[in-house]
Amino acid sequence: MVRHATILSLLILLFTGCNPDQKATIPDKAPLASLSTIAPAKAQKQSDPAQNQTQPTVDDSRKNAITNAVEKAGPAVVSITVTELQRGYTREFDSFFFRYFDVPVQREVKSSGSGFIISEDGLVVTNEHVASKNSKTIMVALSDGSKHEAELLGSDELADLSLLQIKGDRTSFPHVEFADSDDIMVGEWSIAMGNPFGLFADGQPSVTVGVVSAKERDFRPDPQDPRVYVEMIQTDAAINRGNSGGPLVNSNGEVMGVNTFIFTGGTSSGFVGLGFAIPSNRVQKIISQLQESGSVSLEYDPGMKFVPVTRQLIMQYPSIPRVLGLFVTEVNKSGPAYECGIMPGDVIVQIGEERVTSDMHAWALMREYEEGEEMTLHLIRDNKQYKTSMKLRKRVQGR
To answer: Which keywords fit this entry according to its UniProt record (predicted)?
Structure first.
């Protein structure tokens, strides 16, 4: 009996943790929350701060340098609609003469392009072939859907750039920052933004992505179209009709250049992977002059005036050689032209390595020289050809 009592005491000690001499207290009913007290413990273990770090969502993973650049520069990209007056002819029947006559008429023609805002007060940069002096009205649509009339502050045909000012009571506009085009790397991301084919009349820009394919691509002035395209940025980001004037942006959302034209190689009229943009440093240089005076002038004064050699000029002055060139009409005795031996009556036929065909072509070629450089000129005098070198400098005031 004693042995059984000892065994019973040991069992009570094991299951209750009590001294055998103490009385064990056993509740009448097991608590209902006994199971629920175990579950929170497991949940607390799973929510360990070391293991419950914030995981990236799908939306976060979609963001990258390109989307950030578009978000930064997009609000400053605008759609430009221009109305121009073009002169044409219409055929009308005259009952008195019983024949048709071509009657001159003027008609309004609308075109669209792109641009971007460069200052808080609403200065807009675009191409000259988008908005020029021939523009009757210029309307600018922002990405927020608002539309504003704009005025032309200045344009330059040779550089193919125009500067606009948004009109109205609004005083604050989103604007972009320029990148240093000298620091552009071949192979870095390039993002073309604009309004191709006028698809987005509300101003929402279209975005295409590529890389900088090359730098400093030169297209020599065409005598028939003397626009100066030098040091151009080449990109394979898709550029189409209507993208002209829009920005080419880097991955930081900064403007590397102004999208201007594409090269098709005669294969088609659409984009084939060769787009070109005017570099930002050149844009800022031209725009600063347009903002200051409305026009662009040379950094130096050649010290002479000239006119193109034409048929009418040859008939008036039979001694002028019958060649394409520039007839010098005036020479400033305090200028570089006089110092290098150029005289009134000379005909300039070549600037540098380029044959001169018109006055616009000559100004385009002279744009490529800066103050302090030397310009080689070929001229004809008394039916003999001469070569001279002009040291370019600012005009010295003299008698």
So the answer is: Hydrolase, Protease, Signal
